[in-house]
């Protein structure tokens, strides 16, 4: 089992910054939504960030080394999780920061694959080990993170049952879906699926499976695919699903979809803040870092 987790937190958070109906948010919450990275928005007890809860679950799952990829203006992360670039001790987790720099000529970061590539360039030890990757604005369960650590597959992703996710149907319909073979090996990822596509993409259990960017990677074999990732023609970004599919094409039967049926709290837009706060108050009423069980 590996013990390194890379957390993607360098995005522009553009959807969170959009105007929205925010009758149930305080002026402070609106200000944080407009100014902070999504994972740092204070949705927890005493105004602590969502990222606290993700780190809590990572610790429960057995991770030791956490690499947080931040943007060029991401110094606020260091106020919460350690002032040094490397090897900060946060409740027994070893936290280091990688910076996703914006290439000259661009206004926004160059996507999730670019973020991970810049991280492994700054921390080349990742290229000789297995590691997990996830978003900073999703709260993955400890069970999901542990499953990524424990799988023997060289590469893996959490294959969520779409029908078990507690999101509006209109939102779920925008999720890309995964095509798996009878052994849950990844064959393809389809964006913007139609109703007809959904019938063809059901897995052996008859479930429609989606990815929420929770991965395990073999750093050694992934590196060149990260380095050579093409730009998505519509979104003008380099994206991890593209890297994963290119890796599958070169190395078939090395990427398993680990099935899970549970909700994943998500901070994408201002409308999500109140829902995530309610979820945390219900399921994480007392975060006690001194007791990880």
Q: If you had to describe this structure to a student in words, what would you say it looks like?
A:
- The chain is an alpha/beta fold and 293 residues long.
- It has helices spanning 27-35, 50-61, 76-81, 112-122, 142-150, 169-172, 195-200, 219-227, 240-250, 271-283, and strands at residues 4-9, 65-71, 88-90, 93-100, 130-135, 155-161, 177-180, 186-190, 209-218, 255-260.
- It contains 10 helices and 10 strands.
- Strands 1, 2, 3, 4, 5, 6, 7, 8, 9 and 10 form a 10-stranded mixed sheet that branches.
- Helix 4 crosses helix 9.
- The longest helix is centred in the last third of the chain and has 13 residues, at 271-283.
- GO terms for molecular function: nucleotidyltransferase activity.
- Residues 34-241 form the Nucleotidyl transferase domain.
Give the overall shape: globular
The percentage of residues in β strands lies in 15-25%
The appropriate CATH architecture is Alpha-Beta Complex
Per CATH, what is the topology? Spore Coat Polysaccharide Biosynthesis Protein SpsA, Chain A
Query: What is the H level of CATH, i.e. the homologous superfamily?
Result: Spore Coat Polysaccharide Biosynthesis Protein SpsA, Chain A
The first-level CATH class name: Alpha Beta
Give the domain tally: 1
Radius of gyration: 18 Å
Mean pLDDT: 93
Number of strands: 10
- How much helicity do the residues have? 25-40%
What is the end-to-end distance? Answer: 19 Å
Helix-and-strand structural type: alpha/beta
- Largest β-sheet summary: 10 strands, mixed
| Low-pLDDT residue intervals, each spanning 5 or more residues | none
Number of helices: 10
Written as H for each helix and E for each strand, in order along the chain, the element string is: EHHEHEEHEHEHEEHEHHEH
